[in-house]
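Predict structure. Chain length: 236.
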Amino acid sequence: MADENTIETPEVVAGTPGDAGDAQGRRGRGRGGNRDGGDRGRGGRGGRDNNRGGKQDEDDGIIEKLVHINRVSKTVKGGKRFGFAALVVVGDGQGRVGFGHGKAREVPEAITKATASARKKMIRVPLKEGRTLHHDGNGRFGAGKVTVRTAPPGTGIIAGGPMRAVFESLGVADVVTKSVGTSNPYNMIRATFDALTEQTSPKSVAQRRGKKVADLLGRGGASAAEAEADAAAIAE
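Prediction complete.
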C-alpha cells in the first residue's frame, strides 16, 4: 500500500488541473477541489470589481470613509453563521455628502453595498467660504442630539467618531460640534445629517424673501459697503 500511495500522489500532482479535478470528483473527494476553484473564481470577480471601483474613485474624486463594521451571528443547526454590516460615509469634499449601510456575509461585499447606497443618497450642504457652515444648527434622531457651530479659520474639525468622518467627506475645514445622548454611530450620523439638511445660505434666503444678499447682511449694523463686500464674498 505504501508503494501505491507514493506512486499515485506524483501522478495526480503532475497531471493537469482538469485531470486532477476529474480524478478527485470520481473518487468522491472533489468537494475540496471545487471549493478551492470557487474561491479562485470569486476572488477573480472581486479583483475585477475592486479595480473597477478604484478607477471610478479616481474619476469622480469621491471620498469614502468606513465608519463602523458590526458582526452578527446566527446560530443554526450546523453551528454559527456570521454576517457583517458596514456603515460608510462618502463625499466629494466640495459640499456633497451621503451615508449608507450594507449587509453581507463578507466584509468587502458589505462595504461595497454600503458605498453604493451612500452614493445614491448624497445631499448638498451650502458652505461659507468653502470651509465652514453658514450658521449654527441642531440635529436629532432617536436618542441622539448633536450641535454644529460655525468656526473661524484655523479652528479645525472639532468632532469625534462618526461626525468627524461626515465633515471630512463634506469638505468642512473649521467646525465645532457636540454630541449628547447616544453613542450609536448610526443614530449619530442620522442626527448630524438632520442638522446639515437645515443649513441655509444667505443667497437662498434672499431669493426666497425676494431681497438682495447685501440687504440681509447689512442689518447687523454693518455699512452698505461692508455688506456689499460680504455679499460678494459669499460662495455656496
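Summary: The chain is about 45% helix and 25% strand.
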